[in-house]
Design a protein that fits this description.
The relative contact order is 0.25. The model has no long low-confidence stretch (mean pLDDT 91). Helices cover 26% and strands 37% of the residues. The chain has helices at 10-17, 47-50, 55-62, 94-100, 104-111; strands at residues 2-8, 23-26, 35-43, 67-80, 116-131. The chain is built from five helices and five strands; from the N terminus they run E-H-E-E-H-H-E-H-H-E.
Length: 134
């Protein structure tokens, strides 16, 4: 079985680890039948994104900077296409927008009208000690 490693900015990593963001929006998803649905999160070294994390949480999340710090099971993939009246350009409920921690405008800018995929986050595991990329 194959797992997936995704690169994610520190602020989004923080939101996932705090269980505020339970849907990760991506432009693609693995189509291999060998994918075991396990997804590893590599926290990038994006300082601008890291600075969005609340000051009282920065110490907790700094150790994940540039490392693999968590994993989750993707138990569902939701297709978001261009047919909604609530969110111009995308068929997404208000609840799913909240779970993705996004606004309609963010999705439109990111997806540019193409289909986006919501990876449902379950069985989140945050590592006590982050793992190096190698």
């Amino acid at each position: 079985m194959k797992s997936v490693l995704i690169s994610i900015k520190p602020y989004w990593f923080y939101l996932i680890c705090e269980r505020l963001k339970t849907i990760e929006i991506r432009k693609t998803f693995p189509k291999s039948v060998d994918w075991d649905r396990r997804t590893y999160l590599y926290c990038t070294k994006d300082m601008k994104s890291f600075n969005k994390i609340p000051s009282d949480k920065k110490g907790k999340y700094h150790k994940f900077f540039g490392n693999v710090g968590a994993s989750f099971l993707c138990d569902e993939i939701i297709d978001f296409n261009q047919e909604d009246y609530n969110c111009p350009g995308y068929d997404i409920s208000d609840d799913d927008l909240k779970r993705a921690y996004l606004h309609c405008e963010d999705m439109f800018i990111y997806g540019k009208g193409k289909t986006l995929y919501g990876w449902h986050i379950s069985e989140l595991k945050i590592y006590d000690e982050p793992k190096e990329l190698c």
